[in-house]
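request received
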Amino acid sequence: QQQVKQSPQSLIVQKGGISIINCAYENTAFDYFPWYQQFPGKGPALLIAIRPDVSEKKEGRFTISFNKSAKQFSLHIMDSQPGDSATYFCAARSGSARQLTFGSGTQLTVLP
Amino acid sequence: DGGITQSPKYLFRKEGQNVTLSCEQNLNHDAMYWYRQDPGQGLRLIYYSQIVNDFQKGDIAEGYSVSREKKESFPLTVTSAQKNPTAFYLCASSMASGTSYEQYFGPGTRLTVT
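response:
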């Protein structure tokens, strides 16, 4: 019940295209859903996050869509750029603890 | 500059040896975490600490030990009991209370045991 399932494992997109990464969870106690971006050999960095009281959050080219009833959330990267090529992790946190449960990651490659 | 430092970036050890990974933060965060990252498995929590002199086991604590003697430091020891120690190890920190949930990560230490 603590798992967060992420798909796809890898994604190749042309420059200018839309990248979509999906995550699903079971634990209804999760109350914070961040996305992290990680470049090779570096630590992850927070990209964007959402609380379950909103259905969408947009920051620049990055948008989180959240479907509470389906227990799913997704990251959309508009106008994808080669510099977006990285591994993306979704995560979820329950209110009772400060630990994050991470998805397995998606390796995004944006072709020039 | 505020942030999290991990040293060394690369570490090599022979099987059977204990090794300690360093993690220091100057963000004045109360909570600190250790994660292990393996290809295709995301980040898995090893140990976490919400306050000095206290820490809790995460999902994969077997074969690891930690200490939290100072707020800014949270070293991780990979013992010889850890069956598959070769991995990328990440340290993170966050506020322990309030509305900010963000975890800040260090640059990681890649440990290779042969």
